[in-house]
Fold each of these.
Amino acid sequence: MTSDIRIILVAVLAGIALGGLYLRLLWASVRLLPLRRGAAMFLALALARATLVISALAGALFLNLPPIGIAAALAGFIAIRLVATRMADPSAGVVPWK
C-alpha cells in the first residue's frame, strides 16, 4: 500500500515536471514565431515536444510503471496545464454575472 502511494506521488510530480517543460517549450516556440525563421523554429520545437512526450511514455513502459502511475503522471501534466492556463488568463473559466 505504501509503495502504491509512493508510486502515485512520484508519478504526479514527474507529470508536473514534464508538463512544465512541455509548456515552456510551447511558450518558447510561440514567442519565436514572429522572427525571421520563426516557422522553422516552431517546427523544431514541436518536434522536441513530441520527442519529450514519446520518450516519457517509453520510459514509463520501460520501467514497468503500472497503469495507475501513468494515469497519475497524466493527472500531474493536466494539473500544471490548468495552473498555467489560469496564470496566463485569470478570467478563464470565470462565469460572468448576467
Note: Helices lie at 2-32, 38-62, 67-88.
Amino acid sequence: MMVFFEKSVCFGGCRPDQLPFPIQVDNSGYVTLQAEMTLAIIKAIQDGYSNFFCGMPPGFDLICTGILLEIKDIEPKFANARLTAVLSNAERDLSELW
C-alpha cells in the first residue's frame, strides 16, 4: 500500500476529561463539534485527502474516526478514504483507554 503523506490527515486532540463539555449526544458543545468536524472531514476528502490517521485514544481522535467511518458508509463517493490506526506501543494493553 502506497501512502502519499501530502494528502494525509491525522486526528489528534483532547481526551474526554480535557474537552470543555461531556461527550453526550444531548450536549450542544458535543453536537457542534460533531457538525463542524463532519464538514471539515468532507471538505478534506473533496480536496483530495484520502489517508486518515488516528492514534486511537478516546476523545477527539475517536470522535473524528467515528465521523469518518459514518461518512464512508453513507456516501459511496467517499468510500476510498482510508483510515489507519497508529498505535505508539503495541505491547501496551490499551483496553483501559476505551
Note: The longest strand covers residues 8-11.
Amino acid sequence: MILSEKEDLEEQVQSKLDDFQNKIDKYEAEIEAQNEKIETATQEKLNELKAKRNTLQMKLNELNAKTEQEWKDLKSELEHDLESFSEAVEEFFTDNV
C-alpha cells in the first residue's frame, strides 16, 4: 500500500515540477525572443519559485530512503509544499504572462 502511495505521490510531484519547468522555459524564451529584460521584482519571484522547485525535488529524491513513519511525515509535508508551490506557480503565470 505504501509503495503505491509513494509512486502516486512521486508521479504527482514530478508532473508538477516538469510542468513548471516547461512553463519557465517557454516564458524565458518569449522574453528573450522579444529582447526584453525581466523586471527585478518578477525575477525575484521567479527565483523564489525555482528555489521551491529545488526543495520539492530534494524531498522527492528522499522518498525511497524513508521508513514507514518517516514516509507518513514526509508525505504530509510534501503534499503541503506541493499545494503551496502549485498556487505560487499559478499566481506567477497569471500575473506575468
Note: The mean pLDDT is 88.
Amino acid sequence: MKTQFFRKFYNVVALDTELRGSALKLYLVLNALADLKTRQVIIYIETLAEKTGISSRQVRRSLAVLIELGLVERVLRKSEHNPRMNLASLFIVHGID
C-alpha cells in the first residue's frame, strides 16, 4: 500500500514537468490538508497563501496550473443568506489515490 502511494506520488510530482515551484508547493499543501477519504479541502485562498508562504495572487496562478493539469478541481460555494458573498472554496485533490 505505502509503496503504491509513493510510486503514484513520484509519477505525479517528479515526472510532471509542468508541476514546479509554487504549483508544486500548493499541490503538496492541498494533499496534506485533504480529507483522506473524500480528498476534499474547504479553505480560503488567503489561508492557502498563509500556509504555503506565497502570495494570494500566486496561489491563484498555481491553482490554475493544477486545475489545467487535472490535479485539482475547484467548486465555488455561495452563501444561502447572501448570494454575493463567497464562502471558502471547496477543492478536490486528484492524482494520488
Note: The chain has a mean pLDDT of 83.
